[in-house]
Specification:
Layout lengths: L2 H13 L10 E11 L7 H15 L1 E6 L5 E6 L5 E4 L5 E5 L6 H20 L3 E3 L19 H11 L23 E6 L5 H10 L1 H8 L15 H6 L10 E2 L8 H8 L3 E7 L2 E9 H6 L3 E7 L4 E7 L12 E2 L1 E3 L4 E4 L12 H11 L1 H10 L10 H8 L10 H22 L8 H9 L3 H10 L4 H9 L2
Parallel strand pairs: 8-13
Antiparallel strand pairs: 1-5, 1-6, 1-7, 2-3, 3-4, 4-5, 7-15, 9-10, 11-12, 14-15
């Protein structure tokens, strides 16, 4: 298949949707760990019972059954909201149909959350707002029994076969115990380079404000393990599939060309989900055949298969960039850990406000000398700040002022919308004043002798 054909298909999928004239809407996805307060593994029977009761209470339609006929996804016919389990039944996700008012999302979230917590409490379980399940090392960290998650689990465990000059971590099951707060916002075609460049430069700031994934029991010094999980796994074999952009986009063509450098690692044929070694997307379509593996249910084992690449396989191109351009004409922001439940909309409010004032944000970051113009790239600063290490060249008072200026920009934009959405930023001002974030707070509470159950409860408070 010719390169131009592939580039045209990529353009149609990712770039063309941004040209549609539409009001700016926002989509929020919030993943939360399920915790057994007894200290034992999550009881999946409790989870399945919750799902059935939730569906009955809110009149959701089942849209996903695993191989054992357990429900892993259901959707509201009224507003498009989805209750699902991300990768495993240890991780509950609430995804909201696109809206233009954060208060509308908040109202529905609070209703769902209170119901879920009431049901889970009957079996001494709870949700909590942490980026890593605090019982990760006692839970049944197994994937949902379906084609996609089985394939993903197999792919992440394949790291042992690669002889590459890169470091692979020892947590291939991380998808079963890591939780995120993700936001999608409509983006205009004309602003694509500006948005991608500006929000990429913002990533070190987000590490300071939102880090909340501490891998308890592992002394790795990380406040945000999320980056490491993806970057040092088979997803990171091609660094263009994960993390930040280490280049500046001057045009939409630059973005298109960047997408063409990413890799594909799976496809479907019939009922077979096929995994193969990551291969550049353009190279993939130039091959006559690709060899991969699929799970043979009858033999309960993996078998080799050859497939002929089809242009429709582009829908299986899944990257994990911090700023990901989607087929919906949105930018998906994916670098933020699950937040304490009471602060869950701080992530959406922060990104929405800054998207409204992206030009002002860009000017501020371009002229900044607190972080930038000191010999470090944005990627390097992000790696520093997820470790809670403030370099000596940074004046911490000026850093706090910079953080406040950025949140002020978001607040001003939200105030102008006149919907009282700026209230969701209050927790960020508290973090700036106290020079902390949820991960630092957790570590302090542990050092003060607080029990893990009391911290779990604190992070679950609505």
């Amino acid at each position: 298949m010719e390169r131009k054909v592939v580039l045209d298909a990529i353009y149609k999928k990712y770039i063309e949707p941004t040209k549609a004239q539409r009001p700016r809407c926002i989509g929020v996805e919030f993943e939360m760990p399920i915790v057994n307060k007894s200290g034992e593994a999550v009881d999946f029977d409790v989870v399945h019972d919750l799902t059935k009761k939730f569906i009955q209470e809110f009149d959701f339609d089942v849209i996903g059954l695993d191989d054992d006929k357990n429900i892993y996804a259901a959707q509201s016919k009224q507003n498009g909201d989805i209750l699902s389990y991300d990768c495993s039944y240890n991780n509950l996700e609430l995804s909201f149909g696109k809206e233009n008012n954060l208060n509308t999302i908040n109202s529905r979230f609070c209703t769902y959350y209170r119901f879920i917590e009431e049901v889970l409490a009957e079996s001494d379980h709870t949700l909590t707002g942490m980026g890593v399940n605090p019982r990760w090392n006692v839970n049944h960290n197994i994937p949902i029994e379906n084609g996609r998650y089985r394939m993903l689990f197999h792919h992440l465990h394949s790291y042992t076969k690669y002889k590459l000059p890169m470091y692979f971590h020892k947590y291939p099951q991380y998808g079963t115990f890591s939780s995120a707060s993700q936001v999608q916002i409509d983006v205009e075609f004309e602003k694509l380079p500006l948005v991608m460049n500006t929000f990429s430069k913002l990533e070190p700031i987000k590490a300071l404000l939102f880090s909340n994934s501490v891998l308890l029991g592992e002394d790795n010094g990380l406040l945000c393990c999320r980056d490491m999980f993806w970057e040092n796994s088979p997803h990171g074999i091609n660094p263009h599939n994960i993390g930040m952009y280490d280049c500046e986009f001057s045009s939409v063509d630059d973005i298109l060309n960047y997408i063409s450098t990413t890799s594909i690692y799976c496809a479907e044929r019939g009922d077979k989900y096929i995994n193969f070694e990551p291969v550049n997307i353009v190279d993939y379509f130039s091959r006559k055949t690709v060899e991969g593996e699929y799970f043979n249910h009858e033999k309960n084992d993996y078998e080799t298969i050859e497939i002929i690449p089809e242009l429709d396989d582009l829908r299986y191109l899944r990257t994990f960039k911090f700023e990901d351009l989607t087929y919906r004409g949105t930018i998906e922001f994916r670098s933020v850990c699950c937040q304490p439940v009471g602060d869950y909309l701080s992530v959406a409010a922060f990104h929405l406000g800054l998207m409204e004032r992206v030009e002002e944000l860009s000017q501020l970051l371009d002229s900044d000398t607190v972080l930038y113009h000191n010999g470090y790239t944005a990627s390097e600063l992000r790696k520093i700040f997820v470790k809670d290490d403030i370099p000596e060249f940074i004046d911490e008072d000026k850093l706090s002022q910079l953080l406040k200026k950025i949140v002020d920009i978001a607040k001003s934009a939200l105030e102008e919308r006149g919907l009282n959405e700026e209230r969701f930023l209050d927790s960020l001002y508290d973090r700036i004043d106290q020079r902390t974030n949820p991960a630092k707070t957790m570590i302090s509470l542990i050092a003060d002798g607080r029990s893990m159950n009391s911290i779990i409860e604190k992070y679950s408070e609505l």
